[in-house]
Specification:
The protein has eight helices and 23 strands. The strands form seven sheets. A five-stranded antiparallel beta sheet has the order 2-1-3-4-5, with no helix packed on it. A five-stranded mixed beta sheet has the order 6-7-8-9-10, sandwiched between helices. It has a four-stranded antiparallel beta sheet with strand order 19-18-17-23. It folds into three domains: 75 residues, no CATH class; 175 residues, 3-Layer(aba) Sandwich (Trna Endonuclease, Chain: A, domain 1), CATH 3.40.1350; 144 residues, no CATH class. By secondary structure, the chain is of the alpha+beta class.
Length: 408
């Protein structure tokens, strides 16, 4: 369903009210159901065409007889709608637009040129799978012409992950970007201000406009709950706003308190309620502001937390935190500093506490037992801890290659 054609040798565009020829002037009535038929030709194969309107009121051009080979063969209604949407958004943002643009050795579904003329973007709508080599060849041709390529893909195909892509999975309006898009939230980190990228979705019309206005930038990222095995991929993020936050004066205090985070469970051996220390959250005591959480999965962190707890936090039957010490794990075949049951001192393995493996007794016992709110909501504080110590803990926590603990 091409949007462009040649009329008496002049290029016309069905996505524009004046057909892209304001000096003539022209309108759709000059080519649609005209008698005698307007002289329209395909830009690619040169065969005769006619103007049509689909059942969805979409204007396009069609071959009178379908040629054996033509680049416009097989374009779907969705392909047509997406090209039209991109063109409309770009024009409203003040960009010059050429639909179905043709260069010396390249093509683009939609070519947008910035008002200053210094930035060119080729928008390629890809609704069906293609070989990675074909996609790479198209992008190389665009690069040689000084044109940036952005793909509108139906799925997050492997070839699209290392390149600029918006995943639009639907087959009809409203068009929504459901993949490769991220939002951010500010994080106060002992090293300064940082951000956390979170998967997001938004209407395609809004996303295209933000890209053209420079509010979204292609950047390597991955969701915070992704494991270390999942590689970073290129996605669209509000990098400028995030950089503004990160570059602000951090004004960090020299020392912070830390709140312990507990995981409550029942011991598989004695069936008694117990609590394990799985993380800590630094807190500025003067403002109550919380900083990035730190997992205690690394045994050096857990050992340091235990030494700071002693004499500060009173363990009891009402607060049944087991002793933290070195124990032997039969399943892992090693000794390491670990949490234990308050009643019988059985090891509570890291692979279960931090979600890397299922609990072996999950069919017999409750993973999250009922705990009185007054007990669960206690503010268990240790410290104050030097900023340097907390920074070291964060580096140690990030070195553990298993599923990280995150606060709920």
């Amino acid at each position: 369903m091409p949007l462009t054609a040649l009329r008496n040798g002049d290029l016309i565009d069905a996505s524009r009210p004046d057909l892209g020829q304001p000096q003539l002037p022209l309108s759709w009535a000059d080519v649609y159901r005209r008698r005698p038929r307007a002289d329209l030709r395909c830009r690619d194969c040169g065969t005769p065409m006619c103007a049509k309107v689909s059942s969805l009121k979409l204007r396009f051009f069609a071959h009178l007889r379908r040629p054996a080979t033509c680049v416009y063969n097989g374009e779907t209604v969705a392909h047509h709608q997406l090209k039209t949407l991109i063109a409309e958004v770009a024009r409203s943002a003040g960009w010059d637009v050429e639909v179905e643009a043709v260069g010396p050795d390249w093509r683009a579904d939609v070519l947008t040129v910035s008002p200053e003329g210094d930035e060119k973007i080729a928008w390629e709508v890809q609704r069906s799978p293609i070989a990675a080599g074909i996609a790479e060849e198209r992008m190389l041709r665009h690069d040689k012409a000084g044109v940036t390529t952005i793909w509108i893909a139906r799925r997050n195909w492997p070839w699209s992950r290392p390149v600029r892509t918006l995943v639009v999975a639907g087959s009809s309006e409203p068009w929504v970007v459901s993949g490769r898009l991220a939002d951010w939230q500010p994080i106060l980190h002992p090293d300064g201000r940082k951000v956390q990228w979170n998967s997001s979705s938004a209407e395609l019309r809004s996303v295209v406009r933000q890209i053209l206005l420079g509010d979204l930038t292609c950047h390597k990222w991955k969701p915070p709950d992704a494991t270390w095995r999942i590689p970073f991929e290129l996605g669209w993020v509000p990098l400028q706003a995030a950089d503004t936050w990160c570059n602000a004066e951090p004004q960090l205090p020299e020392r912070l308190m830390a709140r312990l985070e507990l995981k409550w469970t029942t011991c598989y051996r004695c069936d008694q309620l117990t609590a394990a220390v799985v993380g800590l959250i630094p807190i500025d005591p003067s403002t109550g502001r919380e900083y990035e959480a730190i997992s205690t999965q690394h045994e050096k962190i857990l050992d340091r937390v235990w030494s700071d707890m002693r004499g500060v936090i009173n363990r009891s039957e009402q607060l049944p935190i087991g002793v933290i010490k070195r124990r032997s794990s039969k399943q892992m075949g090693v000794d390491y500093v670990s949490n234990g049951c308050y009643s019988c001192d059985t090891i509570l393995g890291n692979q279960y506490l931090y979600g890397a493996a299922p609990w072996p007794w999950e069919n017999k016992h409750r993973i999250e037992p009922e705990v009185p709110d007054a007990v669960r909501d206690q503010a268990l504080l240790i410290g104050p801890l030097d900023i340097g110590v907390l920074r070291k803990m964060l580096r140690q926590a990030s070195s553990v290659r298993t599923i990280p603990w995150l606060p709920h």
